[in-house]
Design a protein that fits this description.
Helices cover about 65% and strands about 5% of the residues. With about 180 residues, the protein is mainly alpha-helical. A two-stranded antiparallel sheet has the order 1-2. Helix 3 packs across helix 4 and helix 7 packs across helix 8. The longest helix has 23 residues. The chain is globular and about 45 Å long.
């Protein structure tokens, strides 16, 4: 039985992801989901994608090549699933409260938009696209406010639950937007 992408990546980068010097698997999933959803091709700058995933992890050339191969295969699998209209299953880690960590997942997705060649928000109808992106931006803390030194999101628990439920549908909608 062959290893799944998450298992291969964890094997090589797990300790580095724990100390923050490489992306965690949930962040890689989000990052790749964004990359395969937009107008740019990962293959155009695969090494930059791998550099972002690996970060400062001290791995050798063979491990880097295995990560590259695994990440590019995972990206293709994500693209194929989206193209086939399959809702993505998010491999979410737990936050400090033991809840699914949508915040980190969404921020990794948004980070990908900062490194792609095409500025998504300048290329499209910005208002329409921001509406489409609302669940990602809200769950990623874009609309958080600071009060008395603490971050506060003014959404009810049911609103958050709805956004979390909407997220896979939003990701599919973004893919088909492009």
């Amino acid at each position: 039985m062959s290893l799944q992408p998450i298992e291969i990546i964890e094997e090589i980068l797990g300790a580095y992801a724990e100390d923050g010097s490489a992306m965690r698997c949930d962040e890689i999933h989000a990052y790749l989901t964004a990359l395969v959803s937009g107008p740019d091709e990962i293959a155009d700058d695969a090494d930059a994608v791998i550099d972002a995933v690996i970060g400062d992890a001290a791995i050798d050339a063979a491990q880097r090549e295995r990560i590259k191969e695994t990440v590019l295969q995972w990206a293709e699998e994500l693209r194929r699933n989206l193209k086939d209209k399959q809702l993505p299953e998010l491999p979410l880690y737990e936050d400090e409260n033991g809840e699914p960590d949508y915040f980190s997942w969404c921020n990794a997705y948004l980070y990908a938009l900062e490194v792609v060649p095409t500025n998504w928000f300048e290329t499209v109808n910005q208002e329409e696209f921001e509406d489409l992106f609302y669940p990602i931006m809200a769950l990623g803390g874009i609309y958080d406010e600071e009060e008395n030194g603490e971050i506060v999101l003014h959404l009810t628990d049911s609103e958050l639950t709805e956004l979390e439920s909407d997220l896979p549908h939003t990701l599919l909608d973004i893919y088909f937007y492009w």
